[in-house]
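Box 3.1 A note on notation
Throughout this textbook, protein chains are presented in two layers. The first layer is the amino acid sequence; the second is a token string describing backbone geometry. Keep the layers aligned when reading.
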Amino acid sequence: MKITNVILDMVFPRHCPVCDEILPFGGKLICDECRKKTIFVSEPRCRKCGRALSSDRKEYCRDCEEIRHPFDRAVSVFIYNDAMREAVFRFKYGGRREYADFFAESIYRYLGREIRSFKAEALIPVPIHRDRLKKRGFNQAELIADRLSALSGIPVLKDLVVRVRATRAQKGLSREERRKNLKKAFKLTGNDVKLTGVIIIDDIYTTGSTVDEMALLLKRAGVSWVYVVTVCSGTPV
């Protein structure tokens, strides 16, 4: 552990992302007991969006059978259960920035082999609008991407895609409402994107509407392969 991190942990003790209790000094990112409350996304998984399937008789979830997603493949670490729902909420709205270390380490430890196989040239965090950034103080996807970049060596491109339109919160909206809500919400900062493959980073995969819009934008700009990596995805389907 770097000396700067040791000092920071002493002055600002880390909190467990599940129970939010202060962690013992020594580098742990989650309580031993709370680790048992997290559920990894395991096989069978949808070959497209990566969500857990309730049966191994199918290769794709109902959603991916009916809708053509422009991204090439998505993968997630955890099932979005009650424990992870609380963790993500505190991370985004409670200022628990240190949770990004646990999320990124979990991504790399559990999905590192798949991420390396993507041979991506850049990590692209889902951007938030400047008004939300000003209110929240940080972009949670960007924090995760920064930590994951340090582990994987894949550079982060924070300003390639920007959010130019303030949108309603996606929670509670139908798929069609989400699609309309995100229409023309993103913009590329340059027309000539000299990248072959990229990975979009976000906290949760639900319907895929957000990453669909970004993937479509990137592919129209010439990116051949667009992958998606998130911390959590929905319950088995």
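Residues 100 and 143 are 6 Å apart (CA to CA). The first strand starts at residue 73 and ends at 79.
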